[in-house]
Design goal:
- There is one protein chain.
- The chain is of the alpha/beta class.
- The radius of gyration is 27 Å and the shape is globular.
- Strands 1, 2, 3, 4, 5, 6 and 7 form a 7-stranded mixed beta sheet that branches.
- The chain contains 25 helices and 7 strands.
């Protein structure tokens, strides 16, 4: 998505207390998450560090405007977010600015302040103001951003940030473990801890940690990728295959499909088709062609294997294993079956497919952005009512994954296409409910029902009534939902809950 690449730099600590420096490092983490969910593409911490290293800058430097522009040019960023904060008497005041690189325009300060214990709220509010500064038509409500970090204590957040920035593996794991101990459902900390344990070769511990990231979480793909690597390194190839397969089903990046294929091959199964898919997706990678050559050999097709091996060597002539395999393969073209593999592996040489051990989050998000662009072009050709239906469906898919800001964007797009979309208003009612805006949720649900009675809107109203202990009202809404869909799981669950409290369903 051109023109929406954002670099968030650590905020400057103006409190005079070095023990609060971690707060400055926390801003890129939170702002990146919120801005990604808002439809922007942010530059990762690793890529930011690459730019610093490339320019010979220390990780903790305070950039001048000129240096900031050099960083932006190195990373092709369209916007840079800079800021500062001060802490006094338990309160934090934050100021952020948006630098539009192409126009060399620095925005007016975007400010917020609150008790330090509400740091998440401050960072989420600043993120929302940045999104609105860059895109004044940004449709997501501020409350949706504010509710995104609910349930994480400040001390857990501090340990997470300090852990990700820790210079040693021991300190990193210790800090991240403290964060997880205090907030057991803290997905970002679980992912960071699992990756730290994996890097420290604590593979069983890493697998146990990464498996705790819910499949519906936005971080589940990266967590499952490293879960697959952890399982692979303990020779649990079937489990590794399942983890990579989960990722590939949603994000078929070459490195993911390659790893799925390697895990399949290590179980003695034919993975040629997947390796072929990988070489088509990325024909310039020598490892992928080498892997396909090995898989073809195992299938008993030395001629096709030789073609792939030649391609691998053209791409990387210094590949020692490929160089050793080439004469063995050439001398064995007339053989098949067991004699072929005996000739190839004589003297203890064993060609094995190569696994990829790094996950490109940036690639994932770039692919997602490209898909969004293609989808938007296709949507524009549809009649307004059909556009609304498709956007509402996407919104419900995001809701099912717990991606509330993304869902809200889709529901707002649906309403923009067709203000009479009952499903879009019902979806927005669910978003408002999840962000704690109960009255707005009720209003949207009622609007939805006036347009067309539907189960999701009735269920929202029922939950809101139940929350206020208004059992007859809740029972009435559940009854209406069940008349529309007698097998609806959410309605049946609420029916049982109400009956357990002595309330019958009309």
């Amino acid at each position: 998505m051109p023109g929406r690449l954002i670099l968030v730099l650590p905020f400057e600590n103006r409190s005079g207390d070095p023990s609060l420096n971690w707060i400055g490092d926390s801003f890129p983490d939170t702002l990146n998450q919120r801005l990604n969910s808002a439809g922007f593409l942010t530059i990762t911490r690793d890529d930011r560090q690459f730019a610093f290293d490339h320019l010979g800058l220390p990780a903790d430097f305070n950039p001048t405007r000129a240096t900031t522009l050099r960083i932006a040019q190195t990373l092709d960023a369209n916007y840079i977010i800079v800021g500062n904060y001060s802490v006094n008497n338990g309160r934090i005041a934050v100021q952020a600015r948006v630098l539009e690189v192409n126009k060399l325009h620095l925005s007016a300060p975007l400010e917020d302040s609150s008790e330090l214990l509400r740091l998440f709220d401050i960072e989420n509010a600043i993120a929302w103001k940045i999104a609105r500064q860059i895109d004044p038509r940004f449709p997501v409500a501020q409350q949706t951003f504010l509710s995104a970090s609910a349930g994480v204590k400040l001390t857990a957040f501090e340990n997470y940030i300090r852990g990700t920035d820790a210079p040693s593996s021991v300190e990193r794991i210790k800090r991240l473990q403290l964060a997880v101990d205090e907030a057991k459902d803290y997905s970002a900390a679980l992912l960071a801890l699992g990756k730290a344990q994996y890097t420290a070769r604590q593979y069983d511990a890493a697998a146990a940690t990464l498996a705790k990231v819910p499949a519906t979480d936005r971080l589940a793909l990266e967590a499952s990728f490293y879960l697959g690597l952890a399982r692979f390194n303990t020779n649990k190839y079937g489990d590794a295959q399942k983890a990579f397969e989960f990722v590939a089903g949603r994000l078929p990046l070459p490195e993911v499909v390659n790893n799925e294929a390697v895990a399949i091959s290590r179980q003695g199964k034919d993975a040629v088709a997947l390796f072929q898919q990988v070489t088509v997706a990325d024909p310039t990678d020598a490892d992928y062609h080498y892997n396909l050559a090995v898989a073809l050999l195992q299938r008993g097709d030395p001629a096709a294997a030789q073609t792939e091996l030649d391609t691998a060597l053209k791409l990387r002539p210094t590949d020692a294993e490929a160089v050793e395999l080439k004469p063995r393969l050439a001398a064995s073209l007339h053989l098949t079956g067991t004699p072929l593999m005996n000739a190839i592996t004589a003297g203890g040489f064993e060609p094995l497919e190569r696994i990829r051990r790094s996950y490109s989050e940036a690639s994932f998000r770039q692919v997602a952005f490209q898909l969004d662009e293609v989808r938007a072009l296709r949507m524009a050709t549809l009649p307004p009512a059909e556009q609304a239906t498709q956007y509402a469906k996407l919104g419900n898919d995001y809701l099912a994954q717990g991606l509330v800001p993304e869902a809200e964007r889709e529901f707002e797009a649906a309403i923009s296409a067709d203000t009479k979309s009952a499903l879009a208003h019902a979806g927005l009612a669910q978003v408002r409910e999840r962000s704690g805006s109960d009255e707005e949720a009720r209003t949207e649900a009622q609007s939805s029902i006036r347009l067309a009675p539907n189960v999701p809107a009735y269920i929202v109203l029922a939950r809101l009534d139940l929350k206020k202990d208004e059992l007859p009202g809740a029972a009435s809404e559940v009854g209406k939902a069940l008349r529309l869909d007698p097998a609806n799981g959410a309605a049946l669950g609420m029916k049982q809950q109400l009956q357990s409290r002595g309330q019958s369903i009309p």
